[in-house]
Amino acid sequence: MAVWGATFVSTKVLIAHSLTPAEIFLLRFALAYVCIWPLSKGRLRADGWRDEALLAAAGVTGGSLYFLTENMALEYAPASNVSLIVCTAPVWTALLLSLAYRGERMTRRQIGGSALAFAGMVLVVLNGRFVLHLSPKGDLLALSAALLWMVYSLAVKRPAVFITRKVFFYGLLTILPVFAFQPFSVGAEVLARPAVWGNLLFLGVVASMLCYILWNAAMHRLGAVRTTNYIYFNPLVTIVTAALCIGERITAAALAGAALILCGMWRAERRPASGNKIPR
């Protein structure tokens, strides 16, 4: 999540070099797929078409469609709106799992910690500018992105390297129709620029291959609710990175929000005292 919170800087650099969001996605996922192939070669296979369909759904919801809806939302709505709405993914994940699986219901302690972290995330995203503009089209696209990530979180059931390779494959496959309307136009001269290939390496190898493996492994070990709660760290890392790399100002409200995020996550993850029952 710390790496994902910093990826916006690399994406902004690439956009400044005339790459479109779809082109960035294609290049980073293609690079990630090539790098992960030797690690997953000869691993498990899907058990029938239903299993393969689930893996395809993971590739679409956690890959092409997620990135498209998030980037399209930024064209119609302010970045603050989009950040806030996309970061509600833990709320939707916890709500759906609590309705579907009794064993996945959050405890009161976890609900309180998540609420604190959510409030802190709001303060960090707004960063002292308490102005939101309703943009129905953009807000709905951002909500779609949050719901897509929720579906992706629920679809991750297989070992990390195997499912990550499948996510990259189906993400690449389903992004291709976009280029029928917006042809791929990144030339060799652009790719040869150090700022371009350097940021693509970061996005493809670190932010995509490595981080998706780590995220899927965390989902497999911790479960969807606990893992998606860490999304609240994303805006915190983003605002720190923005201050260090592009000189954005951090306000007192953002610092208060950072404290709430850390406090809320600590409360949600803290183990109860031995002998005490966990209230549900």
Could you explain how this protein is built, in words?
- This protein has 280 residues and is mainly alpha-helical.
- Helices cover 75% and strands 0% of the residues.
- The protein contains 13 helices and no strands.
- It has helices at 2-16, 21-40, 48-76, 79-86, 89-100, 108-126, 136-155, 160-175, 188-191, 194-222, 224-228, 233-246, 252-269.
- Helix 2 (21-40) packs across helix 10, helix 3 packs across helix 8 (160-175) and helix 6 runs parallel beside helix 12 (233-246).
- The radius of gyration is 19 Å and the shape is globular.
- The model is unreliable at 274-280 (pLDDT under 50).
Biggest pleated sheet: none
Distance between the termini: 28 Å
Radius of gyration: 19 Å
Helix content: over 70%
**Unreliable runs:** 274-280
* Helix and strand sequence: HHHHHHHHHHHHH
What structural category do the secondary elements indicate? mainly alpha
Average per-residue pLDDT, rounded, comes to 79
